[in-house]
Amino acid sequence: MSASQRFASVDALRGLAVAAMLLVNNPGDWGHVYAPLEHSAWHGCTPTDLIFPFFLFIVGVSLALALGPRLDAQAPVAPLRRTVLVRAARILALGMVLHLLAWWLMGKPELRIPGVLQRIAICFALSGLVVLHLRRSAQQWGLLALLLLGYGLLLAWGGSLDKVGNIASRWDAALFGRFGYEWNAATGLGHDPEGLVSTLGALATSLLGLQAGQYLRRAQWQNLWLLGLGSACLGLLVAEFQPLNKQLWTPSFVLWTGGLGALALALAHRLIDQAGWPALGRSFGVNAIAAYAGAWMCTVILEGFGLMAPLYAGAFGWIDCLAGPFNASLAFAIAFVAVWAVIVKWLDRRGIYFKV
């Protein structure tokens, strides 16, 4: 891995995305969450809806930085392909283990098959194969355009874009049935926000990140800014015909969030890599999957053994009395992130990095 390029800005953005995941996934009281910290009910885009796209965008950026220099150095493709696929398989397996743990300890009725890590694994594997086998930038751009156009036409051909009637939910329900996030046995309808069909849109986000990563490693700063502005503006234009929707990961959502991701990357690079600002979030970024998985297991164990509610009431009940339930819930989420910030900082200082 010595030939790869490492940018503190990329680690920082990845880490901030992970910290934000922990923040929005662990409120003290799900009934009292400030609106910006919740996902859109369906159409639309809240700040929380940006977190997962930003992470997948950084997946693409990281692959460009890790594999691009090796390919330039004429490294053999087969070992690189094996490394990509093996790591993707490990991420996928970890995602299933976390879901097994939740199913076992929290008494969930069914084991859910799709999930966040499962989607990351698929996007990582396919984006890695694109880097290795479609070397030309024009080929990668062509694939991205075909993917966005094809997925957009598929959604339009499927008819309704409501939650249960859209084609992605219908196909995912047929594929996963009761093993999806939502399932109605009486109607045969269901929905999963990390379903297989909508992963087409998520893959496009990673492919957009690939292009941003190529610009970053080639010092094409102007192109990176133009990518961000152009993609975000195009996303808003496309949203007039097919709305922003995180759960369907519509093409407009890909372009809008990918554009914002590119702008965030350009700004972070300017401030951190060039101007020397502190790389806030770096400790989360260099142990990203470990932090996410560890936080997940922590939450599942607390919930599974009935410790979460008394912990929240005992440690944050006074905030509820003084400042209201929304602030108490937010305080718990911030405290949860702070605990994990201490953990990953300690690991980083000792050079301990968990790789999947």
UniProtKB/TrEMBL annotation:
The chain crosses the membrane at residues 12-30, 50-67, 88-105, 117-134, 141-159, 195-212, 224-241, 253-272, 284-308, 328-347. Residues 6-155 form the Heparan-alpha-glucosaminide N-acetyltransferase catalytic domain. The lineage of its organism: Bacteria, Pseudomonadati, Pseudomonadota, Betaproteobacteria, Burkholderiales. PANTHER family: LD22376P. Keywords: Membrane, Transmembrane, Transmembrane helix. This is DUF5009 domain-containing protein. The keyword Nucleus does not apply.
